[in-house]
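FORM 12-B: Structure-to-Sequence Request
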């Protein structure tokens, strides 16, 4: 079974998708991590975020997600970049490379390959991103689009950064502005913009807990399984 969870930054997708996958014993595929790793590749190569550079760089870039007991390890050309991709700068770079056709084509191909491998082996997969239900798997068995008010999303990102960073945490206002800017870029781009699929279930997480989000998604999966058996 393929479960697609899309939505804007900070809507609760990652935590929910990861926990749902854990509960089901399925693979969790964080596609944003892949765009972040490619963003980092551009920054490290000191290249501008242009189509020309994408055509030049992408053939030499490999991104792998390695599931471990402590979570997904993200590898860029074999190097562990799991921590590096979580900075606000990497998020910004990710949303800039995400507008480029060569980048999207390569990553979508990888996402489909990994998911098909799981399904062929009789397992399920929970993919989380922006275009999973619309482009990567338009025939996904379950499609969920998570939304939340900007203030709630900024607060979550702030708490996450504060918990995970040793240095200074950007202020709530700065995080909120960056999220709004990123949402706009993700929603307005020509290729695979952030958009709910027509048949996606909308889940507003502004005032529900992570536990409730997980239970809602599990019950949607359950309904779907009961209807197809
Ligand atoms: O979910 P995230 O914040 O880690 O995603 C980082 C960026 O990657 C986000 O700004 C948009 C882009 N992205 C995308 O375009 N398509 C996806 N399927 C996942 C992420």
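FORM 12-B RESPONSE
SEQUENCE OUT:
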């Amino acid at each position: 079974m393929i479960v697609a969870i899309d939505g804007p930054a900070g809507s609760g997708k990652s935590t929910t998708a990861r926990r749902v996958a854990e509960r089901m014993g399925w693979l969790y595929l964080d596609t944003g991590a892949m765009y972040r790793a490619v963003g980092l590749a551009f920054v490290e190569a000191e290249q501008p975020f242009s189509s020309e550079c994408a055509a030049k760089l992408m053939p030499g870039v490999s991104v792998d997600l390695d599931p471990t007991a402590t979570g997904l390890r993200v590898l860029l050309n074999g190097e562990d970049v799991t921590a590096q991709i979580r900075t606000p700068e990497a998020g910004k770079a990710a949303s800039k490379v995400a507008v480029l056709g060569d980048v999207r084509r390569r990553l979508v191909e990888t996402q489909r390959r990994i998911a098909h491998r799981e399904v062929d082996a009789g397992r399920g997969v929970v993919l989380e991103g922006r275009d999973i239900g619309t482009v990567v798997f338009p025939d996904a068995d379950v499609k969920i689009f998570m939304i939340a008010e900007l203030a709630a999303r900024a607060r979550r990102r702030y708490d996450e950064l504060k918990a995970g960073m040793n240095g200074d945490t950007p202020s709530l206002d700065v995080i909120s502005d960056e999220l709004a800017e990123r949402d706009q870029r993700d929603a307005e781009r020509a290729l695979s913009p952030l958009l709910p699929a027509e048949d996606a279930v909308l889940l507003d997480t502004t005032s529900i807990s992570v536990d409730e989000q997980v239970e809602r998604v599990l019950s949607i999966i359950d309904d779907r399984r009961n209807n197809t058996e």
